[in-house]
Design goal:
Elements: E1 2-5, H1 10-22, E2 27-31, E3 51-55, H2 61-71, E4 75-78, H3 85-90, H4 93-115, H5 119-124, E5 126-132, H6 157-176, E6 180-185, E7 187-189, H7 198-207, E8 212-215, E9 221-226, H8 227-240, E10 246-249, E11 254-256, H9 257-271, E12 284-287, H10 302-308, H11 316-329, H12 331-339, H13 345-350
Parallel strand pairs: 1-2, 1-4, 2-3, 4-5, 5-6, 6-10, 7-9, 8-12
Antiparallel strand pairs: 9-11
Helix pairs in contact: 1-8, 2-4, 4-6, 7-9, 9-11
The structure holds nicotinamide-adenine-dinucleotide and thymidine-5'-diphosphate.
Thymidine-5'-diphosphate is lined by residues 85, 187, 197-198, 201, 213-215, 220, 222, 257, 290.
Length: 355
């Protein structure tokens, strides 16, 4: 089996759902269920014994030790993090705790577990650390996309905490030989994305008749990847990635925020027109820019394509249409996220059945 951290969040939940759709290998899911952890994302697995939920904190060394001893996973896939840049600006402490101390705890627990494994299990063990392209900082308009060799220059408390965690993961490979792999991925989008992030926020604000807040001039560029493609990349790295290696993962879909918001508005104009027949783009509102806002991210994903044969399957136009349709078709999920009722999901649907 594998141990996943942060599996009730956006990408972790998509990863577990996709994993159990393509294989039967059980997943232990260690998640603290912060505001970003939503067990409704995993509702399809509520009665599936291949998914074992453990509510707990990655900083809790005794808990992590106990899970490794009890389940003896062949791999640990680490998603758990504080992930929202704007929150990191208002309250960086939680980011240092989870993203830095949490990774340290997991690496140390994994090292102790791995060191004591018999030779073949030891050779097969993997610690996969999921990270972000934001660690590289901001790209000039004409600069080449981020390759794995790009120097680190994180600009936000979020990206600085992720950069720190990448350095720890790298050092645990180089110093102790722990078989670590790292992926640095561009902005994800797709089902179960928490609506504090740009794409779901714009879809849901548009439908609610609220302003669509675009920071500053809206010409900041992000490289968007459909979440299932990210999950497939991680599966490839687990299967064939080399310990000590970093793989950059991206969709090759660079786009200014304003163009992205206009694309979503145009899709909604077709799929669910406003009652007054006016375009949703009327709701776009420029607001104050984010402090320290990175201007451009773009990923050079040629290494993972060349070495592991991974390529994104979704184009941006197919992925964004799927995503908008998903939000239109999942009214209950949206309503529970907006009302906060998703936080009661565990007691209602899992009862005491989880660890
Ligand atoms: P998310 O915020 O949606 O989910 C994070 C999950 O981690 C939640 O379920 C939360 O409950 C859990 N968690 C938080 N602190 C914890 C702790 N101390 N112990 C245990 N669980 C804890 O995040 P996401 O967008 O799914 O991102 C997952 C990972 O992917 C993160 O490491 C993030 O840095 C990375 N990443 C995200 C993106 C993106 O576009 N969202 C892009 C590249 C990389
Ligand atoms: P976000 O989804 O927060 O991801 P990240 O900051 O990790 O890239 O934001 C994506 C881009 O959209 C980023 O440039 C900030 C911008 N943005 C807005 O313009 N308005 C918003 O309300 C939000 C949440 C983000």
């Amino acid at each position: 089996m594998i141990l996943v951290t942060g599996g009730a969040g956006f990408i972790g939940a998509n990863f577990i759902l996709d994993w159990l759709a393509v294989c039967d290998e059980p997943v232990v899911n260690l998640d603290k269920l912060t505001y970003a952890g939503n067990l409704e994302n995993l509702a399809a697995l509520a009665h599936d014994n291949r998914h074992i939920l453990v509510e707990g904190d990655i900083v809790d060394r005794a808990l992590v030790d106990a899970l490794l001893a009890r389940h003896r996973p062949r791999a640990l896939v680490h998603f758990a993090a504080e992930s929202h840049v704007d929150r990191s600006i208002h309250g960086p402490g939680a980011f240092i705790r989870t993203n830095v101390e949490g990774v340290f705890t997991l690496l140390e627990a994994a090292r102790a577990h791995w060191s004591a494994l018999p030779r073949t299990e030891k050779a097969a063990f993997r610690f996969h650390h999921v990270s972000t392209d934001e660690v590289y900082g901001s790209l000039a308009p004409e600069a080449a996309p981020f390759a794995e060799t790009h120097p680190y220059a994180p600009n936000s408390p979020y990206s600085a905490s992720k950069a720190a965690s990448d350095h720890l993961a790298r050092a645990w490979f180089h110093t102790y030989g722990l078989p670590v792999t790292i992926s640095n991925c561009s902005n994800n989008y797709g089902p179960f994305h928490f609506p504090e992030k740009l794409i779901p926020l714009v879809i849901l604000n548009a439908l609610a008749g609220k302003p669509l807040p675009v920071y500053g001039d809206g010409l900041q560029v992000r490289d968007w990847l459909y979440v299932s493609d990210h999950c497939a990349a991680i599966r490839r790295i687990l299967a064939a990635g080399a310990p000590g290696e970093t793989y950059n993962v991206g969709g090759g879909n660079e786009m200014p925020n304003l163009a992205l918001v206009r694309t979503i508005c145009a899709l909604l104009d077709t799929l669910k027109p406003r009652a007054d027949g006016q375009p949703y783009a009327r709701q776009i509102t420029h607001v104050a820019d984010r402090p320290g806002h990175d201007r451009r991210y773009a990923i050079d994903a040629r290494k993972i394509e060349r070495e592991l044969g991974w390529k994104p399957r979704e184009t941006f136009s197919s992925g964004i249409e799927k995503t908008v349709r998903w939000y239109l078709e999942h009214e209950a999920w949206v309503a529970h996220v907006q009302s906060g009722a998703y936080r009661e999901w565990m007691t209602r649907h899992y009862g005491d059945a989880h660890d």
